[in-house]
Amino acid sequence: MNKRDYQPGEAYAAASDLADPIREYRNRFNFPNFSDGRELIYFTGNSLGLQPKTAREYIDQELDDWARFAVEGHIRARHPWLPYHEFVTEPMARVIGARPIETIVMNSLTVNLHLMLVSFYRPEGRRKKIAIEKGAFPSDQYAVKSQLRFHGVEPEEGLIELSPRDCESTLRTEDIVETIGKNGDEVALVLLGGVNYYTGQAFDLPAITEAGHKAGAIVGFDLAHAAGNLQLHLHDWDVDFAVWCSYKYLNAGPGGIAGAFVHERHANSFDLPRFVGWWGHNKRTRFLMGPEFDPLPGAEGWQLSNPPIFQLAALRASLEIFDDAGMSNLRAKSEALTGYLVYLLNQIDDDRISIITPRDPAHRGCQLSIRVKDSDKLLFDAITDRGVIADWREPDVIRVAPTPLYNSYTEVFRFSTILEECLR
Ligand SMILES: *Cc1c(COP(=O)(O)O)cnc(C)c1O
Fold this sequence. Notes:
alpha/beta, 4-stranded antiparallel β-sheet, 2 domains, Aspartate Aminotransferase, domain 1, Aspartate Aminotransferase, domain 2, 7-stranded mixed β-sheet, 15 strands
């Protein structure tokens, strides 16, 4: 079944950890513990990533510079605040496979989604529909429906909801492509997640982008569960826009500052409708405080406000680690690590549990969603008591996300042992 020749037993896990070229990265994070100090198994990097040990130092530096320089910190801080977002542009661009001019870190995810929809959802005549996943993350559904209504389109007529076939849990690429094609002259926008938060399914972003463009639609992605998880090539895939948050796989802390991608081909599309603010204005003349908005080219032109420096400092700490580890190394380990979990779960002979996430690494990131028959949350509570931090999604799914940056094969092994013992 597997090229990797997984083996049962903890010795295999220990050997895999020893052979893991990026195992040391684990030491760059703070882990939560039981109150008696024993280590927990943290498998919720898909919800809130762990704290990089350097985050405190980087935030402290800004607190110090604020104390020392006050307003002059905009220029005199060791990392001056005026251009501070620029310190994270290139590392963030590397994480998502974009050019710096296509990448901006600003606001929070849903805010960025609205800003992108203002520019890129432009219903015209028959072409006014938005294709999304049925059961998309609630914030995305709310945002999209409110944008439809904002344009006078009722969600019932404006939404195309992509759903799995009967008796299947995940979408098939061919069905997505077919639905987009079938509705070709009515689709204004295709907006999907990169990885579905519930099922853990990773979508074929280049194929979907191509299908959307062939139909004459704009294609955008919500990469909340994909950024820092999958290897992305947004520029090469020709995606129009994308948004994502930084507190999940990107470990930038609760409410962390989010990202947006706008393809280079829209960099100078100043005629696009947009909601603007002074931070999107030409840097050279921003402080002349003139009445007319002169947008920066590229994604930076969508900025509204001067950004939260402490959040950026935490993100800078995290992205440094991503740069050192490299997305291709992370993805290689992730495929092996989650593959190992699939292997171990398959060894558990109990038909109360099943994996709804696709097995093929090309169609998943690090998360596995485990369906528990008869909605038995007791199982989830039992593994929690045993020190596993996972999460429960109604009605019947336990999500676990072994992340390649800080989780180990041994933790995966221990988790599967705990799960098996709790099933008994
Ligand atoms: C986590 C997540 C969000 C959260 O939105 P915020 O604006 O950061 O609160 C939105 N959409 C998706 C798909 C998510 O996974």
